[in-house]
Every structure is written in structure tokens, then in C-alpha cells.
Design brief:
Layout (H helix, E strand, L loop, with lengths): L2 E6 L4 H16 L3 E6 L4 H4 L5 H7 L9 E4 L4 H6 L3 H4 L2 E4 L10 E4 L1
Parallel strand pairs: 1-2, 1-5, 2-3, 3-4
Helix pairs in contact: 1-3
Length: 108
């Protein structure tokens, strides 16, 4: 099974929407996809009515792991201020990402 890391680096909702859509499509075809939300994408997570939040809430429906959040001083604050249903789909990733563990790394 191919492992793919998709890095959400943009604060643009459309760009992140396309990235998460791609992740879910790949997961449907049995790819192991890991989402990584970087600091610039945090602002999108604060609006519970945007498409990104709705999609992230449904990661388990696609058998996808919880999305990683960049380890930043804002990460814990963000988790505490999100809807519980969304916060449960995110985990602060405090380690260095081993890019060699992934077959592909895509950045949006």
C-alpha cells in the first residue's frame, strides 16, 4: 500500500479543499494518506462552517488516520477552541516527520 503525506500549507480554502478532496479520493482506493495541517492552514479550522472542517470531521468514514497539526505554540490553543467533533480528528504532531517513510509528499 502506497503511503502519501499531504501537507496543507495554505490559508486559502479552495486550495485546501482540493487537497483534502484528493486525500479522500486516494483513501477510497486504498492508499494510506496522512494529512498534515501546517500553521498557515490553522485559520481555516476556526470557521466551523467551511468545507474543510466538515471534511476533516469525516476522516474516519474514509478509514483515514487523524490529521496531524504542526507543533506550534498556537496548536494547543487551536485544539481547545475547536468543536469537539473536529478536535477529535486532529492530533498535535511533535516529532520530526520522516519523509522517507512516505512514497509521495504533496504540498498545497
Amino acid at each position: 500500500m502506497k503511503k502519501i503525506l499531504i501537507r496543507l500549507q495554505s490559508s486559502n480554502e479552495l486550495i485546501c479543499y482540493e487537497a483534502v478532496s484528493l486525500a479522500m479520493t486516494l483513501a477510497t482506493f486504498d492508499y494510506h494518506v496522512q494529512l498534515f495541517c501546517e500553521i498557515d492552514s490553522f485559520s481555516l479550522l476556526l470557521n466551523p462552517n467551511n468545507r474543510i472542517c466538515g471534511m476533516l470531521k469525516s476522516l474516519s468514514l474514509y478509514d483515514m488516520p487523524t490529521a496531524w497539526l504542526a507543533n506550534d505554540d498556537k496548536s494547543e490553543w487551536l485544539i481547545k477552541n475547536l468543536e469537539q467533533e473536529l478536535a477529535e480528528q486532529l492530533v498535535i504532531f511533535s516529532h520530526r516527520i520522516d519523509l522517507g517513510e512516505f512514497d509521495s509528499v504533496l504540498s498545497f
